Amino acid sequence: AMSNSYVSGNSANGMGPGIYLDAAKFTNLWGNKFSDNVQDFSGWHDDNPDNLVEMGVNVPEMMSGSGCGAGLYGECELKKNSYTSCTIGVCHECPVGTFRATHGASNVSECEPCPSGTFADKPGSTSCREAPDGTYTGKSDAVSTPNGIGVQSGASAAIPCPAGQRQPSSEDGDGRPWRCVPCEPGTSSLAGSTTCYECPSGLIAKNKGSDECLPCKEGEYAASTTSCASCVRPSWSSEGATSCQECIEDFYWDGNILFVGTNPSDCTSCPEGALCPHGTTLETLAIKRGYFRFDLRSDKVYPCAPNLALSAKMCVGTDPDATANHSHSLCALGHEGQLCATCSEGFFKDSLSHGCVTCAGSGHASPLLIAAVLLVIGGASYACRDGRPLHSFFIRQRDALIASMNYLITVFITITIIADLQRVHVAQGGESYPLLFRSVIQSLEVFHAFDFIEVFHLDCVASGLDYFHKLMATCLLPLVAVSLVLIGELVRVALKGGHVVRGAGTKWLLIFLFFALPSISRIISGSFSCDSYDFGDSERSFMRVDTSIECGTDHHNSIIIFAAVNIVVYPIGVTCLMAILLWSRRADIRTRATRDGDASLES
Length: 603
Description:
Radius of gyration: 57 Å
Strand order of the largest sheet: 1-5
Mean pLDDT: 78
Number of strands: 38
Helix content: 25-40%
Structural class: alpha+beta
Strand content: 15-25%
């Protein structure tokens, strides 16, 4: 072997003086410097010329190349007769983007460019590396501004595919490892991606090569992954919506309706008694003061009472600072239950305002009023007895006083009729009286309500009282009074003689029943009326007079049976009793000379 040697000033002329190389012994000649050598083989002859190789004319593969190793190249020039002359000890690294796998490169052209899909990012490379996933091969000066298009060979860098593009695959018809493939509409990718991902729900990519999926603006929804569609009023949408599941002000979205985004009937008009700001759903309906909703799934809103003023006291509506907007959360302090019509523990139903009032310090107004009226009546009766100061006044003003009493009786009966007409009309689905007139009538009803629980505030004494207890008190207390009067009359007849039915006790008992019968009959008949209310997925019925009692239950059935029995006793029985009494005295009534009649009628 001869390498990295400097050969100069030799001649080989017809086997004369010079240097001759035996080809059989020299197998490696590289990295040598040759200059000013003369060769002339004229006249030279040998039977085996392969045994002698003249300097500069040996086999090319033995004489070519430098002494530089793999990844390097030398500074060499090609001499005449095709031998290479190289500068001794000078080697250069193959530039980036190229490689040299073996030694002996004589110039830079013998550094091979990296093939497609590979790169050499360092000088002096002996091989090229495969581009990693998510990259394309290109020049290193394009790393800072990648555009997805590189070079087919001689790449010096693996550059991540820019956002909106992906690494090509074998399935791409024009996919090459030196260029990235733009994402199709409806998809996007991050930088360095091997695939494009479909836009998530509510986002779109309109154009090819999108680097991100964008939300549709307000008032639009993502009809597909490539386009937005406009909502049809009154439907609306927030940014990034997949459908128009919002409604403009004064409308609400019912979650039971599947939105298609183009049907304005998907939004429902705000019901009376509710507030519907923009974006209201069925669950978030804001309930106005004075109104009630039974369930979040219900779109029905009900006034808490026929009287709007009373409704406002019972139901306070949705609290702006709270999320609760149905059932008991709508009730004012002291009210609870369905329609906020039940008084909480420690409160009683005031017979004048019909609202719930705290028992502490306020529970004696109505009983004191009744006691005061009875005291006045008792005092007047005592003062009008014979020999008393008012007796003579009563005698003088007897006709005027009787006329006044008749007027009061007429007013009492008129109020009763007017109030009952309204109840019947409303029960049949009609409207109630105008607000002012209705308020006056309701204020006067206390004088003939005959509601012992309300008048005497028994709900402050015992908790859990409902309409059944009111019905029992209304029906049983008069029977107790009748029994006591009959016992008293029987005692009187046994001691003094006379007739039971013609005594003063019986007379006042009949007067009491005359005035009390309408109220007793009204309370009994109220047991049969039920109202249905919407609970979203079902309907439930409650007694109209007491919404704490659900119709159809065992408790309600007991009330119905008790009321049916007392219909026979009071509306039918008492009316027939008075008719029989009048019929039995019909002759005396017809033949009387004065309005009051004679002493026989008085007895």
